[in-house]
Design goal:
alpha/beta, 8 helices, about 180 residues, globular, 7 strands, Rossmann fold
């Protein structure tokens, strides 16, 4: 890539959040600039300073946090994105986006962007296979959102099933293809 592409990485509160660190590292190795937008719930699992260290950029979290500059943050982040990647994506954030609910910074950025949006779900198999979740995924696909399918593996509950975050290499490869 001649010019560094700007990736907004949305990080939600899934046990697979630790893999988002590798996603940041590998996207940067591909020459991308990565800016992380975390949900408040994600902060319960991992501290923003880790993503700041890995990305070399500020991490954005709250819709009403004091801005770094006098821009409307969700609009400026949405405008600078060449791609928005949500990894891991919980059933909650998928449902909110499908329903047009913009009650946090991440969902506002997704709603405001004109860039391609990739979603990498990670959740329990029962949640992933739930008819409502599947309906939300189908709705978003019909609107042009792209999904990186979860894989089958050992889930956080200890059972085997579909819902594990796709491999980091797969997520990075799909993101680069979009650029």
């Amino acid at each position: 890539m001649a010019k560094a592409k700007n990736i907004i990485l949305g990080v939600t509160a899934s046990v697979a959040i630790y893999k988002a660190c590798d996603i940041v590292r590998k996207l940067r190795a591909e020459g991308c600039s990565v800016t992380v937008v975390m949900t408040r719930e994600a902060e319960e699992l991992i501290k923003p300073v880790l993503f700041e260290s890995l990305s070399g950029n500020n991490v954005y979290r709250g819709l009403f946090d004091s801005p770094e500059s006098w821009e409307i943050e969700h609009i400026s982040l949405a405008d600078k994105a060449d791609c928005v990647l949500v990894a891991p994506a919980t059933a909650n954030v998928i449902a909110k986006v499908a329903g047009g609910i913009c009650d946090d910074l991440l969902t506002c950025v997704i709603c405001a962007t004109k860039a391609p949006v990739l979603v990498a779900p990670a959740m329990n198999e029962n949640m992933y296979k739930n008819k409502i979740t599947q309906g939300n995924i189908q709705k978003l696909k019909s609107l042009g959102y792209r999904f990186i399918q979860p894989r089958t593996g050992k889930l956080a509950c200890g059972k085997m099933g579909v819902g594990c975050l796709a491999e980091v290499e797969t997520i990075v490869k799909e993101t680069i293809k979009v650029l």
